Amino acid sequence: MSNRHIITTQVAIMGAGPAGLMLSHLLAQAGIDSTVIEIRSHKDIAETVRAGILEHGTVNLLVDSGVSDRVLRDGDRHDGIELRFNGESHRVDFKELVGESVWLYPQTDVFLDLAARRSADGGDVRYSVTNTTIHDLEGKPKVWFTDADGVEYEIQAEYLVGADGSRSHCRFEIPEADRKWHFHEYPFAWFGILAQAARSAEELIYANSDKGFALISQRTETVQRMYFQCDPKENVAEWDDDRIWAEFRRRVNGNGFELNEGPVIEKMVLPFRSFVHTPMRYGNLFLVGDAAHTVPPTGAKGLNLAIHDVRMLFEGLESYYRSGSSDLLGAYSARALDRVWKAQQFSYWMTTMLHTPEGANDFSRARQLGELNSVVSSRHGLAYLAEAYTGWPGIS
Ligand code: DHB
Fold this sequence. Notes:
Elements: E1 5-8, E2 11-14, H1 18-29, E3 34-37, H2 42-47, E4 53-55, H3 56-64, H4 70-74, E5 76-78, E6 80-85, E7 88-93, H5 94-98, E8 102-104, H6 107-120, E9 124-126, E10 130-135, E11 142-146, E12 152-156, E13 159-162, E14 180-185, E15 189-196, E16 205-207, E17 214-216, E18 223-230, H7 241-252, E19 264-270, E20 273-278, E21 281-282, E22 285-287, E23 293-294, H8 302-323, H9 327-330, H10 332-354, H11 362-376, H12 379-390
Helix pairs in contact: 1-6, 1-8, 8-10
The structure holds 3,4-dihydroxybenzoic acid (DHB).
3,4-dihydroxybenzoic acid is lined by residues 51-53, 204, 215, 217, 225, 297-300.
């Protein structure tokens, strides 16, 4: 006899990152019950440094569904970015080109807002769980887990959602014959830092140079986020502040522009790859966000795509529970993948256009500058970039 405590719910969600929590929140607002479990602690998730750019559609969903008005108060609206190459900056004016903007609002804050709202609404979200196992995906899914106090549970649900990130446990439950993995590896990574310094510019700078790529982003008035292209095997311990700043200077400074420098308070190497798992459904399991796909960070699409997946899945589940029709749920994978592949293309394009390839030669360097020039000298080129960066239409 098992002494597992039974939890009965409509939708079981693995993962309490932004995707899992946003889905649980939207479902709750539609009167659909869910239980969310997460192997990490709330503190661990809150302290992980992640990307910071939200598309207008992501911001609208956070605001309209009542998760956050903080994003509008504490976030910074950015109406453009700078592309910098050959020592010169070229503005991409999103507002003027496509009438849209993005918001700089760290993913960590999105998580904190969602976690606070779920908690205030009495949502069932359990952090720091262990021993998770998944059963009966073709029928009524069950998830076994042990909670932070060592109590054993069995969730019995109608649907299971894998929102459990790039190391997804759920993804590996899908038989090989029923899925396809699409991979692309890149020969570089990003060296990311947080530094105590004032902003160096009003907007983000995406810098291409023959010494490699650098991205100058921001966090607050006094803390900045920056990255430079590095070897995937780079060891952060070998980089002191002087060496880090010398690398940024080589790639970004010039023609009268100088970065503001200051103490480096965090440093890390971020892996880099493109990955898509298709289809994003197996039986009664649906994958959302990083569990189903990874994009390289250039262009900051990861969180935005996850939120788009959630929106598509929510529409399917809501329609099913309201009308009994599973048509929209059946279309989930195709509807989500449509945007996933657009974002894969955009992230790949931004990456290859801005980074220095391995074994770069005179031809590849001159061709890359030709590509960059063809974008910044054409309204159509700039608008293509602006539309993708701020988020393709189709959702408001
Ligand atoms: C940030 C990260 C990105 O990958 C990007 O394209 C822009 C900004 C960030 O962390 O701020």
